Amino acid sequence: MNGHPERSEGSQPGSPPFAARSDGQPAVLEPSRAAEATAPGKIRCEACPVLCQISPGKLGACDRYANVDGTLTRTDTLQLVARPGTNLVAWQAAQDGAWDGSLLGASTEADAPVFVTGNGATTTYPDYKPAPFIVASRHDGVDLVTVVTEGIFSYCSFKVKVDTDRFLGPEQATVRHRGEAVGHVSTIEYGSQFLSLGGVHHLTGGSKKEGRVACEMMMALGNREPVEFVIDGGATVIVAADRAPVVDGVEEKRMRVGCGSAAIGIFAPQWLGLVDEVVVVDDHITGVLSEHQAGRFLDMPATGIRLRGRRSTPGRYFQVAQPGAGWGGTDITDPLAIVEGWEADRGARPGLRLLMVSTTGEDSAWFVLDDDLVPRPAEMPRAVARVVERIGENCEPSLCSVLYVAGAGGSLRAGVTENPIALTRSIRKLLVEVTCGGAPVYLWPGGGITVMVDVAKMPAKSFGSVPTPAIVSPIEFTMRESDYRALGGHMGQVRRLEDVLAGGGWRVEGAAAGNPWPPGAVARGSEWP
Ligand code: SF4
Question: Which of 4, 15, 255, 492 has the highest CB neighbour number within 10 Å of its CB?
Fold first, then answer.
């Protein structure tokens, strides 16, 4: 393609794309027709319900298709993932017809060195058309079929894990992007705050602008770009997959070693003899060493400390302060703000040594009680500072994990088989391996085909969108050729891998580190994750 075509607006169809036959069946079952010229020089894209009419040299409304010299052209090429160990340079050099894999009964025993992903595969619409690529290949000596498409998902969202102690916002608070509601704050997990972002409610249930902004946000998040969110009653946070979160302009460094009680439990023996009291400040469970079972077990005497908040069990306090961006995810910057007082008849005495520290070790202070039992700041002994440093050493780097959830249990299945429920059942029986851009997915239990995948495991730029609005993302279904036939697959549309390769218009890349070879499990007949 020469140059980058300009975008043209989507438009409604001038006439229905398919006429019904007298028996009520669609006149065109397969394959997709060539793009139809609807005005001089224009061609109509039928890859989604928008049905753009694209002028020469211009892009469709989604930027994914263009009119290149009168031909509807996908602006990306089909992406292949190389089998680990494949010498890509040598293999690509041999792509002049020399490789002859054994496919659907062909003569040789060669295993396919590549896996066809949905990236750049194009989309078929309406749904009953067979998927754009139904590819036969041999893996580990087994004849397989992979059904490949760029699915259009209205039902999809992102579950984001943000490793931070800082208060992002109240649970259920609205998360906004460019002023529009695009999600909500979910639960706090161990050292992390979860956000639920996107989803059909925001794509279709609000204003047109909300749907557009939500869709753009989702596409960027899936493509691992940084996205800024403002949370009602909370913080401004910048999220990008596999990168540290930025909360109110500060990049988060450490993920906590544990809650305050856990930190006491871990480090109590290392403090023994160096301190009289330790308070690990935490928004959820603040720990007090002398009262905690860990301190009792080490025969540490009581110190008479009185803490704010609600005592849950000995040495474990809830709600010592408000949530915030201060010590241990609380709003305090002065740790003594959570100490109500000291009781001499319960062990408080002049000279008592007190360490206060946060759950990441980033904040710490050393005090000694004076004659009036008032804690006075003092220089922290080196041996105590070393244990504080060890808390930091045991923290992991803070990251954002972005998981994409998509429902493939709907009409997309018709591109695989004429009997969609057969696909769902075959997936349940582990006869079909589902991947997204070659990346392994988690299949949610229960009905439908709801998959969840780490976008960091997917190829870069795997996500697109159409202005309906909906997200476009790759999905592949791989199964034994005999199983594909049995579930009513579109056998007439199966193409040999070498024929796909001979057609050109593809690129090959290595799989993301740690990804299993996609067809491996189904070829072996073993369970896939
Ligand atoms: S939005 Fe994209 S996929 Fe949909 S019709 Fe237009 S060019 Fe085709």
Answer: 255
Pocket test of ligand 1: the residue of 12, 50, 153 to mutate, having most ligand atoms within 8 Å of its CB, is 50
Query: CB of 304 closer than 6 A to ligand 1?
Result: no
The answer, yes or no, to whether residue 209 has pLDDT greater than 50, is yes
Q: Is the pLDDT of residue 307 over 90?
A: yes
| C-alpha torsion sign, points 124, 126, 70, 495 | positive
In 265-352 the beta strands, taken as DSSP E runs, fall at 277-281, 286-288, 305-307, 310-313, 316-318, 339-342
Q: How open is the CA angle 31-34-37, to the nearest 5 degrees?
A: 150
User: What is residue 71's three-state secondary structure?
Assistant: strand
CB of 466 shorter than 6 A to ligand 1:
yes
Whole-angstrom distance, CA of residue 515 vs CA of residue 513: 6
Per-residue DSSP letter, 349: -
Ligand 1 centroid to residue 210 C-alpha, Å: 20
Atom 4, ligand 1: residue with shortest CA distance: 48
The predicted-structure confidence for 249-288, as pLDDT tens digits, reads as follows 999 999 998 999 999 999 999 999 999 999 999 999 999 9
Q: What angle do CA 44, 493, 48 make, to 5 degrees?
A: 25
- Which is it for strands 6-7 and 58-59: parallel, antiparallel or unpaired? parallel
Three-state SS for 95?
A: coil
Whole-angstrom distance, CA of residue 295 vs CA of residue 273: 11
What are the residues whose beta carbons fall under 8 Å from the beta carbon of 210, sequence distance 6 or more?
A: 180, 181, 182, 202
For ligand 1, whether the C-beta of 470 sits within 6 Å is no
Q: Is pLDDT above 90 for 471?
A: yes
Cα–Cα distance for residue pair 23/493, rounded to 1 Å: 23
CA distance 277 to 42: 78
- Structural tokens at position 202: 């925001």
Would you tell me how many other CB atoms lie within 10 Å of the CB of residue 432?
A: 27
Q: Is the CB of 59 under 6 A from ligand 1?
A: no
Give the pTM.
0.86
C-beta of 10 in contact with ligand 1 (< 6 A): yes
What's the chain's Rg over C-alpha atoms? 29
- Residue whose CB lies within 8 A of the most ligand 1 atoms, among 32, 64, 129, 472, for a mutation test: 64
Dihedral sign (CA 174, 179, 182, 186): negative
- Per-residue pLDDT, averaged over 102-130, amounts to 74
Nearest atom in ligand 1 to the alpha carbon of residue 48 is 4
Mean pLDDT of 39-56: 89
Confidence of residue 91 (pLDDT cuts 50, 70, 90): low
Gap from CA of 19 to ligand 1 centroid (Å): 21
pLDDT of 12 reads 32
Residue-level pLDDT at 511: 79
| Cis bond before residue 31 (omega within 30° of 0) | yes
